[in-house]
Write a structure and sequence with these properties.
Helices cover 26% and strands 22% of the residues. The chain is α/β, with parallel strands linked by helices. The longest helix is centred in the middle third of the chain and has 17 residues, at 99-115. The chain is globular, with a radius of gyration of 18 Å.
């Protein structure tokens, strides 16, 4: 397994919503289009100081809901991180009271403005057709993998983009706001997910809506679950039922209720990692989990015959 310095950060926003970043192999990805007074300094510090980059390779947005992509914050975020690629939700934004429509216009304006400087960002709409056009995921590759949407649901939450970030020494599963048990059943059948998820961002902020079940957790088996929740936690995220499930499964739960959560590779950056929960906008820690090791490191140590047996079943998904 290659040595890849890897960092994941969940940002405390001071309000309801989600904001994360994933850095691996020199590439910085911002997950969700949120930027508040509470998070701005941390995002800038994470990029420039901790990761040593001056722009984001990708801005990945899972949902047009305002707690994932806020039209009042999007222009400032784009100017700060200057993404070279933007992955947009593939469902119709016109159905969410115009909020997503305005965000799309802002993204188009950003692309036009950047094109005038000689650099044209790539805009990708993650639709079922886009996912179907991708090559099947390689069992050995350090390639990010998309899983949803494979169809458009009436409930916009279930059209959230689901993606496994797997370029680093540990992997992160982003689930957006998906709610449907049907999606959960499909995801838990995916061999790469079952074999490689280390850190899981709880679906729909840890709501108890039928998606996050004991059966789902038994199949995916993450070491760490991350919940994005505001300071006052007005929506009670994650729900007590979800907390109990995670505890029963021995999964470490970390939230952004009072501060950022940092997951970082350790040692020679070939699989070892630790999780730190910070207090507010400081470097003080409220908790730390050490000595974790990614699933991928064990898989990539296997020989080719073992890998062929492991992934021999016919795969329609993931892609």
């Amino acid at each position: 397994m290659r040595s890849i310095r890897t960092r994941f950060r969940a940002y405390h926003l001071g309000s309801a919503g989600s904001s994360f970043s994933y850095f691996a192999d020199g590439h910085f990805t911002m997950i969700e289009a949120r930027l508040t007074e509470e998070s701005r300094a941390q995002v800038e510090h994470e990029m420039t100081v901790r990761c040593g980059v001056d722009h984001a390779d990708v801005l990945h947005i899972t949902s047009w809901d305002a707690d994932h992509c806020n039209k009042h914050e999007l222009p400032d975020l784009l100017n700060l991180i200057r993404p070279m690629k933007i992955e947009c939700p593939g469902y119709d934004p016109y159905k969410d009271s115009g909020h997503g429509e305005e965000c799309l216009e802002m993204i188009a304006e950003y692309r036009s403005r950047r094109r005038n400087t000689g650099t044209t960002p790539i805009i990708r709409h993650i639709t079922p057709q886009y996912i179907q056009g991708l090559e099947p995921a390689s069992a050995k590759a350090f390639r990010d993998t998309l899983y949803n949407p494979v169809q458009i649901f009436e409930n916009a939450n279930d059209n959230s983009t689901v993606k496994l970030f797997r370029k680093g020494s540990f992997n992160v599963l982003s689930l957006g706001d998906v709610m449907s048990p049907i999606i959960g059943a499909r995801l838990r059948r995916q061999r790469v997910l079952r074999s490689e998820v280390d850190v899981m961002i709880l679906a729909h902020h840890g709501a108890d809506n039928g998606f996050t079940t004991k059966k789902f957790l038994n199949h995916i088996e993450p070491d760490v679950a991350i919940c994005s929740s505001d300071y006052d936690n007005m929506y009670d995220h994650p729900r007590q039922e979800i907390r109990d499930l995670l505890h029963e499964q021995g999964i470490h739960l970390k939230t952004t209720k009072t501060g950022d959560v940092i997951v970082r590779s350790t040692g020679d950056h070939t699989g070892g990692y630790e999780v730190i929960n910070l207090i507010g906008r400081s470097t003080k820690e409220s908790s730390r989990v050490e000595g974790l090791f990614s699933k991928k490191s064990g898989i990539l140590d296997a020989n080719d015959d073992t890998l062929r047996q492991r992934y021999a079943a016919k795969r329609t998904w993931p892609r």
